[in-house]
Design brief:
This protein is mostly helical. It has helices at 5-36, 40-45, 59-66, 69-100, 107-119, 124-133, 151-162, 166-174, 179-190, 192-207, 211-216, 225-235, 249-281. The chain folds into two domains: 1-57; 60-281, MetI-like (MetI-like fold), CATH 1.10.3720. The protein is built from 13 helices and no strands. Helix 4 crosses helix 12 (225-235). The protein is globular.
Length: 286
């Protein structure tokens, strides 16, 4: 194809816009990572903004990992992320599959109930009272069960299931397969993109669990990583008596941000292909 001047101009403009958007996303990440590895003297010398450090120091990470609560909170976060995501996916699939079948009696009313929860919620205090009445206070289940199902994710998965060929279900029923077997032996294996997408949503939510832990957990041994990191940051706000011997506030803050965000940043590139496909296919139908 022969490109005219208008096509070339549009292509150049697109590249410039994409470059600006890319820099807007990369520069803050690079700044956070660089400051976490930069000596405090160099940070002060550059007015608090360092993109490429001339010297490297791991003092902030040593102090962060040297805290006794970090390994315990990391284990708690990994536990609620793995177990919670598994429960989330199982329940979401069990709800989305029947809602995707048009022959379900009362399907319209069940869908209305799901959509209703997207617009209205019980509020913080009623939710807390329900969690307390069920005996979940001061347990890890209080960080998993209250958010076991997301209506938004149910609708995404339902839309994906609706796009599967109806002939698959008919042939499976002719062979004598029941609904549970159809779901776990046919639907789930064919729905890897949407399962990965929804699973990533749930996993990131569990990994960043903070408000639920503040609300429902008072036992410090059950604090997830985000709560412990927040406490460390609060302690780092204390005035420094000797700037050479102590880790400064800004360096500690950036190290905590990197430590809490790094696992998600590492996992996401491997799931990006499924994530993009799942979002596109799951959003075609309402």
């Amino acid at each position: 194809m022969v490109r005219n001047s208008g096509d070339k101009l549009f292509g150049t403009f697109s590249y410039v816009v994409l470059a600006i958007v890319g820099l807007a996303a990369v520069v803050p990440l690079l700044y956070v990572f660089s400051v976490s590895l930069t000596p405090f003297a160099e940070v002060l010398r550059h007015g608090g903004y360092v993109l490429i450090p001339k010297e490297l120091t791991f003092s902030a990470y040593k102090k962060l990992l040297g805290t006794s609560a970090i390994p315990r909170s990391l284990a708690v976060t990994v536990y609620i992320t793995v177990i919670g995501t598994a429960i989330n996916l199982a329940l979401t699939a069990l709800i989305a599959y029947p809602l995707s079948r048009r022959q379900l009696p009362g399907r319209r009313y069940f869908l209305l109930m799901v959509v209703f929860t997207l617009l209205f919620s019980g509020g913080i205090i009623p939710t807390y009272l329900v969690v307390k009445a069920t005996g979940l206070i001061d347990s890890l289940w209080s960080l998993i069960l209250p958010t076991a199902v997301s209506s938004f994710n149910v609708l995404i998965m339902k839309s994906f299931f609706e796009q599967l060929p109806e002939e698959l279900f008919e042939s499976a029923r002719i062979d004598g397969a029941k609904e549970f077997r159809i779901l776990f032996r046919i639907v789930v294996p064919l729905s890897l993109p949407v399962m990965v997408t929804v699973g990533l949503f749930y996993a990131v939510g569990h990994w960043n669990s903070f408000f639920s832990a503040i609300m429902y957990v008072t036992d410090r041994t059950l604090y997830p990583l985000q709560v412990v990191v927040r406490e460390i940051l609060m302690l780092s706000q204390q005035p420094l008596e000797n700037a050479e011997d102590q880790v400064p506030t800004v360096t500690m803050q950036m190290a905590a941000v990197v430590f809490a965000s790094l696992p998600v940043l590492i996992v996401y590139p491997f799931l990006q292909k499924h994530f993009t496909k799942g979002m596109l296919l799951g959003s075609i139908k309402g």
